[in-house]
Amino acid sequence: MYISVQNEFFDFSEEIKNFTATLDNIGALVTFTGIVRGQKSKTLDYMLIEHYPGMTETQIKLIVEETFKRWKICDALVIHRYGKLEPGETIMMVATAAQHRKEAFEAAEYLMDYLKSRAPFWKKEVLNGKEHWVEAASEDEAALNRW
Amino acid sequence: MVDLIYFSWIRERIGKSGESIETRAATVFELIEELKKKDVRYSEVFSDLGSFRVAINQELASFDASILEAKEIAFFPPMTGG
């Protein structure tokens, strides 16, 4: 299990290389990368992500542990950034490794659904000096019901 | 004494990121009622129970949860991670 909550940029391919280096006998690797959507000075200048230090790490760990209980996966990785992020920047990524693809896909989706609504992050969008907090979407909360 | 922590628009509308308070409240709900009496900023922020969440000692909790063992209580809007 690898979890990192960080302000710094991360290199997706480097992370995957490190993540898979120690894994043995896996047949499937699923990755998801979240990117700041938007076009500068048109729809979004930058995003500010706030989080709850301490609780964020604990909460992500609980979500990952639950993922291990529900699916037969070999390992999982979660990296989530906070701070100021511009359009096109990578916000976060998850990776799941398993022997078979079904488990890897489902585990990654489960992780994403729970990170979205249960990890204490809050996003603020800024455009032309105007800012607003991103509201949680009701479909994100509803997505948890399918698990 | 218990530490209250505020995030996102709750922090902005109350005007501080946290505070230490003395309280006689036994539950989150009672604490909210107490806070609402403090000042109009609190009564506005906490007017709609559906618009925010609470964590006790960094764990998500319900409004009827006991705060007798609480060291840290955080108030924040629904999370928007991912």
Task: Work out the helix count of chain B.
Answer: 3
Biggest sheet of chain A, open or closed, and with what strands and sense?
A: 4 strands, mixed
Helix content of chain A: 25-40%
Q: How are helices and strands ordered from N to C of chain A?
A: EHEEHEEEHEEH
Beta-sheet strand percentage of chain B? 25-35%
How would you write the strand order of the largest sheet of chain A?
1-4-6-2
User: Total number of helical segments of chain A?
Assistant: 4
Notes on the protein architecture:
The complex is a heterodimer of chains A (147) and B (82). By secondary structure, chain A is α+β, with helices and mostly antiparallel strands. Helices cover 34% and strands 35% of the residues of chain A. Chain A contains 4 helices and 8 strands, in the order E-H-E-E-H-E-E-E-H-E-E-H. Chain A has helices at 12-21, 55-70, 101-118, 138-143; strands at 2-6, 28-35, 46-51, 73-81, 83-85, 90-98, 121-127, 130-133. In chain A, helix 2 (55-70) packs antiparallel against helix 3. Chain A is globular. Chain A starts with a strand and ends with a helix. Chain B is an alpha+beta fold and 82 residues long. Helices cover 29% and strands 26% of the residues of chain B. Chain B has 3 helices and 5 strands, in the order E-H-E-H-H-E-E-E. Chain B has a 5-stranded mixed β-sheet with strand order 2-1-5-3-4. Chain A binds chain B through residues 34, 50, 52, 54-55, 58-59, 80, 91-92, 112, 115-124, 133-136, 141, and chain B through 5, 7-9, 55, 58-60, 74, 76-82.
